[in-house]
Amino acid sequence: MVYLEKIDKKEYKVKFGYDGRLIAFFKGLPKGQVRTIKEIEIVDGVQEEVWNRYINEQALLKLLIFLKDNFYKFGFINFNKEEFEHLKNAFKERQERIRAILSGKKKSLDFSGINFDFLKHQPFDYQKEAVVFFDGT
């Protein structure tokens, strides 16, 4: 379970147990979006050293997408209903925007005008579509 705690207006604390995929995700974020800090917390009367991640708003949306795509369970701490709805709407808008871009790209992937004769082996159709897709981005 991943816990997202609001610290202030633009900073969030992420708490989770050891998870290699999540750690790799945080390492892939730009340095300005995430900080990793070793802290001492008291759990059931015992002091424990834990690594907490502090992220900004841009990283929060990326994290939510990562968590949803990888079927992680997560919870919110110190979020009011308005902030929660804002995150939910931003997430939905981004997913719809990505879906619209990809569907528009897929429709315009005509590779009939491109000559691939210079290649020793002719590529498959999906490879030709990939060339057209990445040339257009």
Task: Please explain how this structure is put together.
The structure is a single chain. With 137 residues, the chain is of the alpha+beta class. Helix content is 45%, strand content 26%. It is built from four helices and five strands; from the N terminus they run ββαββαβαα. It has helices spanning 20-28, 57-69, 81-107, 125-136; strands at 2-8, 11-15, 34-43, 46-55, 74-77. It has a five-stranded mixed β-sheet. The protein is elongated. The model has no long low-confidence stretch (mean pLDDT 87).
> Given the helix and strand composition, which structural class is it?
alpha+beta
Give the strand order of the largest sheet, numbering strands 1, 2, ... along the chain.
Answer: 3-4-2-1-5
Strand content: 25-35%
The helix fraction, in percent, is 40-55%
Strand/helix succession: EEHEEHEHH
Average pLDDT reading: 87
Oligomerization status of the protein chains? single chain
Uncertain spans, ≥5 residues at pLDDT below 50? none
Topology:
Layout: E1 2-8, E2 11-15, H1 20-28, E3 34-43, E4 46-55, H2 57-69, E5 74-77, H3 81-107, H4 125-136
Parallel strand pairs: 1-5
Antiparallel strand pairs: 1-2, 2-4, 3-4
Characteristic terms for this protein:
137 residues; 5 strands; single chain; 45% helix; five-stranded mixed β-sheet; alpha+beta
